[in-house]
Amino acid sequence: MQTRFFPLFMILPLVMAAAVSCSKGTPKTLVPADYSGWGTTTTTELNYPIPGHENNYRKIFINDTGFMVDVRDSGGKILYDYPDGTVIIKEIYQGMSITPGSKPMVLTVMIKDRENPKARGGWLWIVKNLASGDENIISQEFCITCHTNANEPHPYGDGNKDSIFRDYAFFPVK
Prior knowledge:
The protein is an alpha+beta fold and 174 residues long. 12% of the residues lie in helices and 23% in strands. The strands form 2 sheets. The chain has a 6-stranded antiparallel β-sheet, with no helix packed on it. A two-stranded antiparallel sheet has the order 3-4.
């Protein structure tokens, strides 16, 4: 009977591939848990219906990086450019009003990450289900299609009558 030995350079890749496929690990969380102490982008009470968020109350938070937004005049037109690392979190509540102690049902999140291949307009668009903790990056054009309207006059909030490019944020940092 003849015994066959496999060279180490042939076995090692197989062992490593098996180890990687068996170790799923915990998925990376993109949405920070400690956002409730962040600043806000508006003092306007967001208690009116809008497409995509329907008849639900909203609160918007932004991290410190977002307050370092570059606002400049380009040929008479104001342009906002949020730095990479900006995180804007919108809490969505059930119904058009909230009471003390109300908890949001979902978070919609924008994370500025120009280099990410899943980014649309330089932003990752994420929905976080608070019941399950699941975070889903929206790869379709739904979010950015609506938020493109933030960069021109629109019927929400202050209406952006001056057509300021707000980098897809309806309520930019002022």
